[in-house]
Design a protein that fits this description.
This protein is of the alpha+beta class. The chain contains 6 helices and 8 strands, in the order H-H-E-H-E-E-E-H-E-E-E-H-H-E. The strands form 2 sheets. Strands 1, 2, 3, 4, 5 and 8 form a 6-stranded antiparallel β-sheet that branches. Strands 6-7 form a two-stranded antiparallel ribbon. The N terminus is likely disordered. Bound molecules: adenosine-5'-diphosphate and magnesium ion (MG). Adenosine-5'-diphosphate binds next to strand 5 and strand 7.
Amino acid sequence: MNMDNSKIRRSSADSALRRQSYGASATKAQATAGNVGGGGIYLGIGGNIGDRELNLTRALTIISAHPDMRLLRVSSFYRTSPWGVTEQPWFLNAICEIGTVIYPAALLEELKWIERILGREKSTPRWGPRAIDLDIILYRSIVMRTPLLTIPHKHCTERLFVLMPLVEIAPCIVHPETGVSFRNYLDELLKTQPEEACLKYNQIAYKKP
Ligand code: ADP
Ligand code: MG
């Protein structure tokens, strides 16, 4: 794969700079490069422009090479119908579980940085076509709502392309606000939405390079 390693190195430098600028809010653990904490952080990965499989794989490769993230589990890839803006090409979606000690707001910035190196334009319309979309679906049991960030992800209980891969890799987890299991949300959604709207694209999904 033709990945530009200097960009990955720049990410580490950016992370280090950000950690320094967190000042008093930085924990000792955060200041230690390579401390990636436990798991329980689930990211949504999707895209519907260009080589979707390659874009998802590239995003996963960057995450696995990130000095402050550990890639723990990756779901199958799912071929899904567009959601929200329906007049656009099909998406490929997946969920991965990571470990990190990067706080949610800084994690969102890291994910936006990965989106940018994978060619996502800053002005991509919400729910519109994009090479890559990285969302924080769950951050352990954290519940937060700020103008920039809602965790658990606002639409995580309404989207097959989140629920199918999430339940695949984490069949027992529950929504931290409602206590309802994600399997339950999936079963409910499948009563009104056809399973074909989100089909397993491949089982193997992602192999570490
Ligand atoms: P979407 O992912 O809903 O299709 P975008 O990727 O364009 O749309 O996201 C727009 C904004 O949503 C982001 O800039 C971010 O500030 C905000 N946002 C709120 N909660 C989250 C979350 N949990 N994960 C990712 N982005 C989020
Ligand atoms: Mg997004």
